[in-house]
Amino acid sequence: MSRRPRLTVFGTGYLGTAHAACLASLGFEVLGVDVDAARARGLQAGILPFYEPGLEPLLRAGLRAGRLAFTTSYPAAAEFGDVHFICVGTPQRPGSGGADLTQFESCFAGLAPLLHRPCLVVGKSTVPPGTAAAYGQRLPGTAPAGTGAELAWNPEFLREGHAVADTLRPDRVVAGVWSDHAAATLREVYAEPLAAGVPFLVTDPATAELVKVAANAFLATKISFINAMAEVCEVTGADVLSLADALGRDPRIGGAGLRPGLGFGGGCLPKDIRALAARAAELGAGEALSFLHEIDAINQRRRTRLVDLAREAAGGRLDGRRVGVLGVAFKPGSDDIRDSPALEVAARIQALGARVAVFDPAAMDRASQVHPDLDYRGSVLGAARDADALLLLTEWPEFSAADPVVLAKAVARRAIVDARHALDAAAWRDSGWDYRAPGRPGDPAGLPGALGDSAGAPGALAGHPAGVPRHAAGPREAEEPLPGRCDLTRRAPKRFAVKRLDIYGSSSMAACDRRGLPSAWNWRAPPGRSAAPSTRPWPRRAARCRYG
Ligand SMILES: NC(=O)c1ccc[n+]([C@@H]2O[C@H](COP(=O)([O-])OP(=O)(O)OC[C@H]3O[C@@H](n4cnc5c(N)ncnc54)[C@H](O)[C@@H]3O)[C@@H](O)[C@H]2O)c1
């Protein structure tokens, strides 16, 4: 092939559109293919169907230069392309953790019989282990070109919000190939980034497809690790931000990705770790990856924790409260709301009886299609207006820049929950706000160290500077059961002390033995219900209570 290879990109979503427009900007002729005719028409008119910084100008430049076009026609694409990139979706299969490969299968089944001349078919979608081998075997038997049509795997690592930069200058290009010819072809496609020093890693296809899901599993683990530490911080009085900073300075650990907060979401990490765990189980290696279930569970718990924090911030209840929400996209720089922790928290709070007003710079259209019941406002100020609690759930830079003094005048109560650690806590507190963030101590005035008498109390955690678990005893402890709350005092055996504790801001009754270990407890009994001690295990994050 003397001319540059002509490229097709099947599936023009977040990945495919960025890939097509970036390769066109590098001088290749590129044809994007999608089954969604409206999407293909829109892209051909220069309209990006989603928000991605810097991508629309690249799209339009490619169209203007005549190097980029979009179609729904598989025959036209098969005729046009020398290298066919498959970038279709691989969502979670409904009702299971496994990957739904329907889009991939239909793309392959539509394309392969049309391949009459030698070409390279390159899988870029994220798939479970074994997918490349299965399709690699099928291709020569299905394509009229026979062994002239070859499969390779070239996983994609771009991050939404940074798709252009990540595509043009990736950290690495991984080429999973069965032949030198396939490696040479991919080297030609990525010639420009490779010339700029981007590493080109040649592997077999099985390794290439695994690199992607393993990378996502590692990232998810790192995020859930620090969020698990945030849970520990909340019962020990430690500060997860300082912890993450100190941990991240160890070069063996590294600070990137060690960001505590509301956890991960989006169209990749959650479904990819589930698909990997499900596939490993199918292959008999389920035990090796069983920890991924815990990673997922830790991540899901962050959402519940945020609802609890919102309730605390709103004065102990959500029903009838007004809650302002800043951010519903799964991350800043994107309008993607797939498995968005922010949107889920907003919806859960609304379902608990609060009136939720939302602002997001990019994701409101998409969010309103899924949750039309939320109240969408045009600005940060609009979302904050009359709120009993304000929640920052996606760390858009404009939210970090918001002025706490200005917002203080708009809200009904100065209570902010910073789910992403994006705000200057001191500045907000100085402006009179009750500032809360997961894994961080609350108002310094109420810190255990301010108590004076708690350092030697039974049940105190050794080594903690203030001597007591932050949420398990001390300043939030109340001797009198609240009216309407459950009261274990009459039920508890004599050897137990019964305390009403404030665990994560929820009223809880605990019967503790003399070592401060909880022996019976009732967590969040609804008002008016006198509940028996719970048979559920003591929540790990609540640690010990103090003998009283
Ligand atoms: N979004 C990301 O940041 C990202 C990053 C790396 C890898 N990935 C992986 O890339 C793949 C695509 O992700 P996405 O976020 O772009 O998904 P998406 O849902 O945004 O896009 C998928 C596109 O494929 C189209 N499509 C479906 N079936 C088709 C078919 N048979 N032929 C042609 N087009 C078809 C859909 O209409 C849609 O436009 C997934 O496997 C994902 O895990 C995504």
Draw up the topology in text.
Layout: E1 7-10, H1 14-25, E2 30-33, H2 37-44, H3 55-65, E3 68-71, H4 74-80, E4 83-86, H5 102-111, E5 119-123, H6 131-142, E6 149-153, H7 163-168, E7 173-176, H8 180-189, H9 191-195, E8 200-203, H10 205-236, H11 240-248, H12 269-282, H13 291-313, E9 322-326, H14 341-351, E10 355-359, H15 364-370, E11 375-376, H16 380-384, E12 389-392, H17 397-400, H18 404-410, E13 415-418, H19 425-430, E14 434-436, E15 497-503, E16 506-512, E17 518-523
Parallel strand pairs: 1-2, 1-4, 2-3, 4-5, 5-6, 7-8, 9-10, 9-12, 10-11, 12-13, 13-14
Antiparallel strand pairs: 15-16, 16-17
Helix pairs in contact: 1-3, 10-12, 10-13, 13-14
Bound molecules: nicotinamide-adenine-dinucleotide.
Question: How would you sum up this structure, described in words?
Answer:
The protein is α/β, with parallel strands linked by helices. The model is unreliable at 445-509 and 511-548 (pLDDT under 50). The protein folds into 4 domains: 7-203, 3-Layer(aba) Sandwich (Rossmann fold), CATH 3.40.50.720; 216-295, N-(1-d-carboxylethyl)-l-norvaline Dehydrogenase, domain 2; 304-442, NAD(P)-binding Rossmann-like Domain (Rossmann fold); 443-548, no CATH class. The longest helix has 32 residues, at 205-236. It contains 19 helices and 17 strands. The radius of gyration is 27 Å and the shape is globular. It starts with 6 loop residues before the first strand and ends in a 25-residue tail after the last strand. Helix 1 (14-25) packs across helix 3 (55-65), helix 10 packs across helix 13 and helix 13 (291-313) crosses helix 14 (341-351). Helices cover 36% and strands 14% of the residues. Residues 10-16, 33-36, 39, 87-90, 103, 106-107, 125-126, 156, 158, 160, 267-268 line the site of nicotinamide-adenine-dinucleotide.
